[in-house]
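Sequence design from tokenized structure. All designs in this work follow the same two-part layout: the structure record, then the generated sequence. An example of the structure record is given first.
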């Protein structure tokens, strides 16, 4: 009987991690999670995994976490911050530390999967579906820091395979980032950015997990980047109408221009430095761009990636889960 492969998951207590861990267990992996002090896995599988308390900045804990590991699934990162430095400290420097320890203290490592973001590629200038070989043009601190982390990962491709996934908008059970929009739609308010058409690509969380698992079976010989979405392009209006329909609401559209919201929020942040609004400046800056869309042909062709959920089906499951949990 073959020995179970061992996976180290960083960010296992987060949104995507909470779906990856049970999927790994179901496939027979031995799973270890690196958790910051005070973090916890609030899911039924917590007794089936190993945990190491530590941080990406703590090389001693990383060495312990990487013992006899076959694959690293690096999901941990900062998605909100007050300064550019805070993003880079976690996303680039944390990834750099992890890679260095992988290189020095993980001799059995078979591959490293880094979950980046479409933010690292930046928006499409004219609405065409972005491909991986295009020059990245991130427009936010978050995107810049994720691209910098990708660059760090690329330095180790002569030591172990590196797979970089750039998911589009990820949603599904457990996600809190889109919850505000769903709650507003439940109250009959469809919050739309600006007066022009805005487009985005999206992916249901289980399809992101499927892409990661596929990457362990069809490992590229060298570093490879893959865009991950459900293969479609959605307008905000289309998405909001669908969500309202699933909620059984008609509602009315409220249009707020991100180009106006960004300077207003930035001004408020300067007047009140401790305000939570500073955490959202970076995301609003991204929303001033109209096309966040990507092409997944490479993932289909090289990984055999076949998304199972479009936005309609995925949102049905997501809203159903929100209701079961009392979030709506």
């Amino acid at each position: 009987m073959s020995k179970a492969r061992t996976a180290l998951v960083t960010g296992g207590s987060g949104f995507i991690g909470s779906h990856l861990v049970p999927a790994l267990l179901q496939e027979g992996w031995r799973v270890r999670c690196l958790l910051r002090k005070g973090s916890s896995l609030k899911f039924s599988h917590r007794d089936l995994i190993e945990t190491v308390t530590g941080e990406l900045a703590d090389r001693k804990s990383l060495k312990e976490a990487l013992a006899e590991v076959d694959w690293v699934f690096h999901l941990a990162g900062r998605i909100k911050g007050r300064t550019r430095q805070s993003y880079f400290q976690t996303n680039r420097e944390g990834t750099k530390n992890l890679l260095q320890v992988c290189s020095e203290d993980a001799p059995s490592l078979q591959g490293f999967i880094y979950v980046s973001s479409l933010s690292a590629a930046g928006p499409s200038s004219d609405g065409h579906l972005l491909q991986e070989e295009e020059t990245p043009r991130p427009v936010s601190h978050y995107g810049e820091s994720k691209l910098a982390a990708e660059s760090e990962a690329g330095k180790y491709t002569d030591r172990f395979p590196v797979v970089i996934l750039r998911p589009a908008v990820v949603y599904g059970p457990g996600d809190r980032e889109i919850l505000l929009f769903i709650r507003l739609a439940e109250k009959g308010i469809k919050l739309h950015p600006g007066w022009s058409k805005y487009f985005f690509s999206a992916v249901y969380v289980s399809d992101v997990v499927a892409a990661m698992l596929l990457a362990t079976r069809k490992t590229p010989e060298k570093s490879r980047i893959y865009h991950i979405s459900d293969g479609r392009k959605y307008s905000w209006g289309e998405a909001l109408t669908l969500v309202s329909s699933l909620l059984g609401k008609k509602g009315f559209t409220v249009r707020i221009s991100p180009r106006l919201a960004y300077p207003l929020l930035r001004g408020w942040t300067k007047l009140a430095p401790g305000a939570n609004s500073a955490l959202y400046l970076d995301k609003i800056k991204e929303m001033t761009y109209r096309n966040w869309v990507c092409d997944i042909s490479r993932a289909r062709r090289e990984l055999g990636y076949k998304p199972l959920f479009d936005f309609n089906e995925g949102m049905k499951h997501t809203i159903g889960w929100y209701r079961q949990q009392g979030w709506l």
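The CA atoms of residues 7 and 198 lie 38 Å apart. We note this feature because it recurs in several other targets discussed in the main text.
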